[in-house]
Specification:
heterodimer; A: about 140 residues; 7-stranded antiparallel β-sheet; disordered C terminus; B: about 110 residues; alpha+beta; 3-stranded antiparallel β-sheet
Amino acid sequence: MTTSTKTIEIRVERNLATTPKDAFEAWLNPKVPGTPWNMAEKLVLNPHVDGLFYWLVRGTAHYGRFTEVASPARLQHTWMSPNTQGLESVVTVSFKKQGDGTVMTLVHSGLPDTEGGRSHDKGWNFFLDGFRQEIEKSKVA
Amino acid sequence: MDQLTNVLTALSHPTRRAIIARLSNGPARFSDVAEPFDTALNAVTKHLKLLERAGLIRRVKQGREVMISFQAEPLKAVATWVHEYERFWNESLDEFQKHFSSKPAKEKKP
C-alpha cells in the first residue's frame, strides 16, 4: 500500500549586511540570535556532512542530518519533527555575495501540507477567519 | 515587491479591510465604496490603487460606470504564508538580519 502526502516548499530570503563567510559562520553559531539553535533548550549540533543535530525547543524534539556543508555558500540538512509527520523535510540555506552584502536564501522543502503545519496563532486565526467569512459571503452573494 | 508583500501591505490598513468587506457583498461603484468613509476621495483612490496592485480588486467598465469588484484569489498567498514553518523562518531570519545590521559597518580603507 502506498500513501502520498502533499508537500510544500517554503522560501525565505533576506539581505544581510555582512559577507557570505561571516553569515555562514554566524548561522552555525548557537550564540547568534535568529539561528534556530539559539533558542534551544537542549542542543547537540555537529555541522559536518552526515553529522547530526538534536534540537529541543518548547519541549518538542527536532532531529536532522547535515547533507551538505560547503562554506561559505551552502548548507543543507534534513529536518524531522512532530510537524513533519514522519517525513524527512530538507532545509537548504545559501549565501551569495551581492555588493557589500549577502543574499541569504532559506528553502524548507518536503513539508507536509496539513492543517497541523498551519499556524494556530490566535492573531492569525482571527485575521484569516475574518477574511474567510468575507470570502464565504462573497460566494453566497 | 512580490505579490505576498503587496497583499499584506494592502491588508494592513483598516480602511482597506473595510473596503474589501464592503466589496465582498458584491461589486460597487466608486462613490458607493467611498461613501462610508469620512476621508478625502483622493485618499480612497490611493487605497483602491494599493488593493488593485495586490490583485484584491478589479475595475470593470459597465456602460458609463466603472464597477469595482473583490477578488479573493490573492488571499490564498496569505493563507499559505501562515504555515507554521514559514512564520518561524521569517521571524528567525528577521532576527538574524538584525544581528548584522546592529553591528557597526566595517570601515573601508581608502
